[in-house]
Amino acid sequence: MAALARAKVLVLIVSLALMGGCASTGGKAAGPGTSEAAKASTAEAPAEGSHGERTYQNPAAKLGSFAAVLVEPPQMRTTADHNEKVDDFLKQLEGTIRASLTQSLEASGRFKEVTARPETARASGSYLVCKSEAMVHFGSTAARLLVGMGAGRSKLIVIHSLEDPQTGEILVKYTGWGGAIGGFGFQILGKMQADAVAIANY
Q: By the 8 A CB rule, do 55 and 38 touch?
């Protein structure tokens, strides 16, 4: 129930941001959107802090003027050495990130078209590009046993942004975090997939 309540709050925050609901109080923007660290965030150097501190919204953004969103394939990165097992893990997680992000954008009801096809996006007229990058840190069972539970945690960083392809301007950007106690395996993949869905919903 607590997770469901948090998810509803996150959806509400983004809905307000998409509606341009950053009110002005004494010359300062209220709520998410003021963080330059969030705008500059990358998977290698991600923004930290509260949800607001990890969320950027261009104050001049008019999302209602865009008819479509082109969802690009996520850029998947990892600190682990690549092998068949790692690549399969990343491929499954990539599918979850892309599918959940597409569903979230469609569910917002703010765009006539959410597509993975560039020609479809261009045919709609004005459109945004949704970019994503993810960094997967696999935990260490040895570190967890020798040092403690926190030392062996896996970590997921996912960054989503909505950008205007005509100007290159970032209109909205969010850095999400997830992870689990553990290093590798089916349960870790399941937890990261659940985290990816929650991040996309935000």
A: yes
